[in-house]
Amino acid sequence: MTDKDTKKSGKQGEDEMTVVVPPPKNKQNSAQPPNDADGDIAMEDDTKAGEVEAQVDPVAQTVSDIKSNFALLDRAVALFDPRFSLRALRSISSIRKRLTPDILAQVVSETFSASSPNTQVAEHLLLAVDRPNVTLGSSSEMEIDSGSKSPAKNGGKKEPKEVIPEIDIFLGILAQVHLYDTKQFQRGFALSRFLSERIQSLNRRTLDSLSAKVYFYFSLFAEQLAPLPPSPQSPIVSIRPILLAALRTAVLRKDIDTQASVIVLLLRNYLLTSHISQADLLVQHTQFPENAANNQVARFLYYLGRVRAIQLRYTEAHEHLTAATRKAPSSACALGFSQTATKLLLVVELLMGDIPDRAIFRQLTMEATLHPYFLLVRAVRVGNLEDFETTIAQHADTFRRDGTYSLILRLRQNVIKTGIRMMSLSYSRISLRDICIRLHLGSEESAEYIVAKAIRDGVIEATLDRERGFMKSKEVGDVYATSEPAEAFHDRIRACLALHDESVKAMRFPMNQHRLELKNAQEARERERDLAKEIQEGDLDEDDLGGDFEGI
């Protein structure tokens, strides 16, 4: 038979191939389904399997998804690895849309038993979801009945497994998420206070990532309760001692997750009540952890940039806000943060006297949101004071909602300075009266004052003749003859080096490398034992080993 005949026969064998189904394990269903005329197996089993999958109860599936995270939390405690806890927290985004009070009550009742030492935690969770009458330990009897046929040592009863604190805190976070989504802020605030007190009483490093999430929702609930901030009677003022105590404990315990989260929450708390000096003191007397999560770093830089902008330190604010926009996640769920940080960055750039790049306003995700700021930038760039005031009047509500209204009001002087600079570039000599008319100023005295201040601040290079009432511009020099290009180039190099250093710090090394080293060390010990045994039996001598030998 030639190769061609072999290939043809192989193709025919593939076309006529029949599916062989192994016999099932159950004796009742051992009969094989009948074959059709071509010898193929009928698809009845696949149809039945599809019907079974279609009949899956969504409540049971949600309960199963929640309980599947308990194994991750157990592994996080057993291996002392926080990555398993983070995996459990990441699953909340897919579970939160299916959460109901009945599902949470069922999980709590099946997790905790009536004799469990954590009964108080279960009662608080049931009370938070408005199911206080649910009995605990509903699944303990099922575990006893479905156990092995051999009787247990303790009279046939199975002791319930102790629930670790990580599991009840995780269930508490699920209850917080459900209460926040359903806008039950008062119950969520009470539950968050209880969970924070419980976390303070425990000293477990495996609770670090979970406790950070608890304090996050605790602060969100406080912001939604009446009276709303910036009222001094707002509940956000009452939780500051709790957050400060949590920060102090986290620093002592070297809890990076809680430390980063609480610092960000405190900065947000102070900004909501306009306590800028206290926020500045917090930044001065605390050190933000270097190994914090990227999301927390982005939030910290944003709030720090807002504080520096209010303090008129625009250069530092620009650096922090630029870093915050670069560190912002690129996913759609973080689009709101990117838009908010970009809005504040645009205002800070205008306050610094710079004009933002037009490409920022052409992004698909930013175009509609940044339209009021585009009109603002256009008025500032031209130096038209009338258009500037019109834009503020039309979009005042938007600017107030974004928290940039007070900063935008400072731009009036910048608009006037920009107009004066445009005129100094266009005219070698212009009268103060023409400046007053073009900038819509009240009098020539105010125009003279503004021009003198612009000359002193270095905005324009000109001289002012008060007797004749005109401004004379100087010849514009070559910008490349100054140190400005070198400074801009230095800033870009510094940003690239900082990005490189952060990337090196964020590198992860192969997992279980320490276990491989322990395995190699154990094999070396076994070889030494074998050699020592052979020496004792007389098979080898120390001279045969080529040197000194030390036994175990």
TrEMBL record:
InterPro entries (alphabetical): CSN3, PCI_dom, PSMD3_C, TPR_PSMD3_N, WH_DNA-bd_sf
- The keyword Chloroplast is annotated on this UniProt entry: no
Task: List the Pfam families hit by this protein, alphabetically.
Answer: PCI (PF01399), Rpn3_C (PF08375), TPR_PSMD3_N (PF25573)
GO terms for cellular component: proteasome regulatory particle, lid subcomplex
- Which intervals of the chain are annotated as region Disordered? 1-48, 137-160, 527-552
Specify the superkingdom. Eukaryota
Question: Might you name a Gene Ontology BP term for this protein?
Answer: regulation of protein catabolic process
- The answer to whether keyword DNA-binding applies is no
Domain called PCI: residue spans: 298-478
Keywords for this protein: Proteasome
Specify residue ranges for compositional bias: Polar residues.
137-151
Query: Which SMART domains does the UniProt entry name for this protein?
Result: PAM, PINT
Identify the PROSITE patterns for this entry: PCI (PS50250)
Q: Where is the composition biased (Acidic residues)?
A: 537-552
Composition-biased stretches (Basic and acidic residues):
1-14, 527-536
Instruction: List, in alphabetical order, the Gene Ontology terms for molecular function in this entry.
Output: enzyme regulator activity
The entry sums up its family as follows: Belongs to the proteasome subunit S3 family.
Name the chain's protein.
Answer: PCI domain-containing protein
- State the organism named in the record: Neurospora tetrasperma (strain FGSC 2508 / ATCC MYA-4615 / P0657)
